[in-house]
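Customer escalation, tier 2.

The customer says the design service returned an amino acid string that "doesn't look like it belongs to this structure." They asked us to rerun it and document both sides in this ticket. The original structure tokens are below, unchanged.
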């Protein structure tokens, strides 16, 4: 019995060791760290520093108009642009794409937004508003939006929304009016019980 326990312990140690080796933290240079600090948000910094596998929709803010000036670069890097407005674009990004993109002189900032799927729940006009806000550097200024829940929201939804960084302005059944910075939208998009996101001025369509 003792030998079996010892063998199990050895196998477990080897398994844990193998898992650790698969996700060894990268040896980042001072330049890499400088780019992360200057151009990446906290979530993207975590993905790179912890060597996490990730495929996500990110907001990339450029120095100039995306369509006119940066389409060729994005095509060359085989990065899919899901939507764009002015100097900001929603780009489908994989972990290895991040470091070279950060080093592009034309890139001002990269923000983690969400998995690709939740974008289908965002009203197109509101998505343009989000891109415009990030492009203008006003992503930390409180914005107004409406969210619609799949089922009647409970107290846990109140706690989730507030923890995400939003203030609940009003509630009308399944629909809530919120105020908060659009940098916090990424937290709301993690909740699959929220089925629609829209700018506050579009209340009639919900």
């Amino acid at each position: 019995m003792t030998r079996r326990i010892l063998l199990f312990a050895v196998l477990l140690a080897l398994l844990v060791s193998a898992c650790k080796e698969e996700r060894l933290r990268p040896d980042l240079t001072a330049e890499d760290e400088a780019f992360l600090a200057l151009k990446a948000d906290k979530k993207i910094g975590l993905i790179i520093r912890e060597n996490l596998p990730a495929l996500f929709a990110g907001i990339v803010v450029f120095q100039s108009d995306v369509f006119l000036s940066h389409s060729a670069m994005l095509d060359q890097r085989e990065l899919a642009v899901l939507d764009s407005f002015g100097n900001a674009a929603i780009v489908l990004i994989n972990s290895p794409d991040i470091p070279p993109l950060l080093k592009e002189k034309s890139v001002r900032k990269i923000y983690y937004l969400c998995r690709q799927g939740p974008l289908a729940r965002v009203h197109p006009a509101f998505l343009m508003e989000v891109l415009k806000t990030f492009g203008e550097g006003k992503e930390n200024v409180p914005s107004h939006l409406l969210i619609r829940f799949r089922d009647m929201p409970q107290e846990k939804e109140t706690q989730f929304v507030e923890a995400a960084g939003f203030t609940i302005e009003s509630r009308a059944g399944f629909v809530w009016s919120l105020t908060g910075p659009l940098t916090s939208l990424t937290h709301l998009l993690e909740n699959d019980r929220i089925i629609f996101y829209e700018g506050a001025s579009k209340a009639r369509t919900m």
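Tier 2 assessment: The sequence is consistent with the input. Residues 2-22 form the longest helix (21 residues). The first strand starts at residue 55 and ends at 62. Sent an explanation to the customer and offered a walkthrough call.
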